[in-house]
What we know:
Elements: H1 4-9, E1 17-18, H2 25-29, E2 33-37, E3 40-46, H3 60-78, E4 87-94, E5 103-113, E6 117-126, E7 129-139, H4 150-153
Antiparallel strand pairs: 1-2, 2-3, 3-5, 4-7, 5-6, 6-7
Amino acid sequence: MTSGADTANSGSPEGFTRLHLPGPFVDINGPLLARFSEDKLRIGIRLEDRHCNAAGICHGGMLATLADLQIAVAMVVQSDIQAFLPTVNLSVDFVAPGRVGDWVEGETEVIRITRNLAFGSCILSTGDTALARASAVCKIPGRVDPRFTLERLLPDA
């Protein structure tokens, strides 16, 4: 018998474990898995029918959701911000379609962190194929939130 964590990780690349984000939104759209290595947080998902549109390809809204989370959560971890970063601007370019069964993962580049704002970009890809390119600006709140640390987001890593 396998545990819930084992089931969530089946079919994912080595080193990915369940991402524990507060709130039900990610549970509904996930499960999202993540891996922190080489000072980068990569978030990934195995695409299912429920992530696809009427044309049978990954819905743009799902890719935008993944890009938004990839950028914001990676900036939290990679810049040690330790707070929820609400997105104030998100721009997404859709490059290629994702299909059921594809493993999609992102990688974020932190562009700049100021006192009040965080700027980042990411590429979402499956294998060697880029699916989307995104950039975001997030608001840095004035308080720390202990739920947003690497240890709390990836407790199984």
